[in-house]
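User: Working on a comparison across species. This one is Fucose permease from Granulicella pectinivorans. Can you predict its structure so I can line it up against the others?
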Amino acid sequence: MVLYAAFAMTGFATALLGATLPALAVRWQLTDGRAGFLFLMIFLGSSVGALVSRGRPASSVARGLAITAPACVGLAFAAGWMVFPVAFFYGLGLGIAMTSISLLRSARCTKSRVREMNRLNLIWALGAFACPSLANAALRFRGARTLLTGLGVVFVVFLVWTVLVEVGKMPIIESRGKTLRAGGMRLPVTVALLTLLAIGLESSTGAWIATYAERLRQGFEAPVAAASVFWLGLLAGRALHATKAVTKLHERTLLRADVAIAAAGCCVLALSGGPAMLLVAAGLIGFGVGPVYPLLMAAVLPRIAGNMIFVMAGLGGTVFPLITGAVSARAGSLRVGMLVPTAAGIAMLALVPVVSLQLKRMEGGAG
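Assistant: Here's the predicted structure for Fucose permease from Granulicella pectinivorans:
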């Protein structure tokens, strides 16, 4: 249960800076371009963390938490350019912790691994969903310094538990790339592109939707509502895919439906001018894009060699929030910047028929 709570808190921490960006941008004097670079540092750190997670999984969890806790406190007191390197270590610690907890639970639940991974996905999404309302309430009553320092203290508690209880229980397992080298095929280019676009859409929407709602001047609660609805949609999408009825459907069928829903949400986002349309767009994007990456992993990991799917996911999560901020800064309008995730959703819709055919060929080759 403690590891599940820690995993939920990594979801909370991942969503935190995007959900509270309107307030943190003022505190750290961030333009849209600098905010995009902030997200670049976080997701770059997270991607590096995912790739370097190795050795005893419980010890690796402890290393991730030991990096994340001081990084939270560092963000609480950072100012000026120091925010960016601290943000990298914040992402690095989260990347190590999330990956290592997944590997740890996977190693302990060999007979129910798929069910356990679904459970972890839901727990992570639950933490992310809880973040906007809880974090913004803490900002109003205590301020950013107390919020971030308190988060660091929570990670210290999980670190102490991990060191005292979890470390030493499990044998050494290989790094993520080696562990998942199950098949002999290479990752098809189309699947790699869809992975990049899906994580890019998810990360850029999660990073910028609250700030976009605030720029539309829809009221004080609009940023919280938009971020909460996005993460609620993602939670609901993953929860639905964990049900027995949906798991009986083929991955390709689910993939086409999910991408269509996400693309529809992107179109609504591009046309949104009021709070109702914005909330609908956020919910649809979250609901549609949330299950796409888990579906792609389930479809290709038993058949491909190497860890390229994780590399592409990290690249999408790193680049798209940065591009969104850069386009917004260049155009002087976040509405224009939000066309970046919109374009990603439409590109996914165009790409998914080709990916479906490719996955079908891979299944035939495996058989």
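For your comparison, note: The chain has two domains: 1-173, 180-367.

User: Helpful, thanks.
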